[in-house]
Write a structure and sequence with these properties.
The protein contains two helices and nine strands; from the N terminus they run ββαβββββββα. The chain is α+β, with helices and mostly antiparallel strands. The protein has one domain. It is globular and about 40 Å long. The two termini are 26 Å apart. The model is unreliable at 137-144 (pLDDT under 50).
Amino acid sequence: MNQQFITKDTGETVTAPQLPADDRTGSGYDWMETLTGRPWDTLASWSREGWDAGSWPYIIFASATHADASGPLYGYGLYLEGDTETHWFRSQTACHEAITEAVFGFWKLGQSDGPANLPEAAAELPSRYRKPYFGWTHGRATVE
């Protein structure tokens, strides 16, 4: 279902797909099945090395692309123990930076398997940790 969003990077009002809400009748794995047939797909891994993006079935990242009259939009969503949130960006680079920031938070807290010796802030991560993992991808992530 499409809904109006304010893009996080440009502040535009856009109409784009909403990440499906959790119906609270199953697990995160059941929620992942609701993505079938939608523009959203799970994002299992992040960074060149393929570190965990989330911790299924409790923390699940999803990604999507969409286009409107002004051009492409890049989205990521987060399922966190039944709560969902949706974020849209005009720039794929800005979307990747936002995903990096979110994934880093779970790595730093030890809630997702991530690299050792993390810096204090996501902005200090080396570039290899700041992009999609293409070795095994469930999603539609692309690089500009």
